[in-house]
């Protein structure tokens, strides 16, 4: 999921850029990593638009890289940033760019054909690239330029089209059915008034007595924070293993459920840093995940989205570019939605809200009495009762 600073009175529009391979220069720039006011008529562009940005190191996911561009010549600006630019500093090392360092945009401009196809002129060196690399480049371009209103892109060399196709990428959309642990101790996917268990994995999760759960997209693994404050993982073969048994600690308790101790290998691309509920002015932000070959997982430098007020106690990714933070202010809970690359919003939540998770088309809130709510427009609808833990889902396989 992207980086951008959000501050109450700052207005800006944003679009994403699509990046890929972690190298000296992944394929996307962040124009907006510093607080800045949007100039009238400017639009933020993600390279590569839509839900795109940069490729994760596995080449299977697109990570949005949000930045700002003036409206004039926006297609050329977005493409130049993608082909010749660098990723945002907080994403460096966590993403990969398909465009080799030696390539650059010829003429620094993109032309539109009479049919509305964007012509991206590349140097002769592009002809020596393999088809997989060209397809990845095409994918990044297509997804980035869609935010500039362009639906079709053609790479060319000396006016001759280069054969390339957009590749399918894994989605980060969350399954529409919530994953929960009931008061009766059953873990699974909520289906109407019942819970469908996940073969073997549910038993493994239940055996850990969890207080926080994060579920991988293919449901092969779950990261769990236990009642004793330990971090463990549960696997789809029914096994479990301990990751950190140092016991309760304020930040570990708040981070473990979202970070999974680094045990969610494919989907924990970006991690939100929780603000503690016992102090004010702490930064709330996101960070890229690094895993160089043969080394342990680590987090890159955090990118601040906002500075929390006292009382921030839970958060979750709501979509590719938005982090939701539950905050208690003067005894009342509220939802801060922090956009990576845009301004944030503040909204109401059900009384005694205590946990949050994103959904495919909504936000889910669990309150202190075990009632689960889903947001529909500006209102909250009761979905289920007797829920002990609302799990965070990393995505879906469909």
Describe this structure in words.
The structure is a single chain. The protein is mainly beta. It has two domains: 15-161, no CATH class; 179-393, Thrombin, subunit H, CATH 2.40.10. It is built from four helices and 30 strands. The protein has helices spanning 74-84, 131-145, 201-206, 250-259, and strands spanning 15-18, 42-46, 54-56, 62-70, 95-96, 110-112, 118-121, 153-157, 160-161, 179-182, 187-191, 194-197, 210-215, 221-226, 231-235, 240-244, 270-273, 283-290, 298-299, 303-307, 312-319, 322-329, 332-339, 345-348, 353-358, 363-367, 372-376, 379-384, 387-390, 392-393. Strand 22 (322-329) and strand 23 (332-339) form a beta hairpin. The chain is elongated and about 65 Å long. Mean pLDDT is 75; it is low at 1-52 and 250-280. Residues 75-166 form the GerMN domain. It comes from Rhynchospora breviuscula. Residues 267-301 are annotated as: Disordered.
Write the layout of secondary structure elements.
Layout: E1 15-18, E2 42-46, E3 54-56, E4 62-70, H1 74-84, E5 95-96, E6 110-112, E7 118-121, H2 131-145, E8 153-157, E9 160-161, E10 179-182, E11 187-191, E12 194-197, H3 201-206, E13 210-215, E14 221-226, E15 231-235, E16 240-244, H4 250-259, E17 270-273, E18 283-290, E19 298-299, E20 303-307, E21 312-319, E22 322-329, E23 332-339, E24 345-348, E25 353-358, E26 363-367, E27 372-376, E28 379-384, E29 387-390, E30 392-393
Parallel strand pairs: 7-8, 13-30
Antiparallel strand pairs: 1-4, 2-4, 3-4, 3-5, 6-7, 8-9, 10-11, 10-29, 11-12, 13-14, 14-15, 15-16, 17-18, 18-19, 18-20, 21-22, 22-23, 23-24, 25-26, 26-27, 27-28
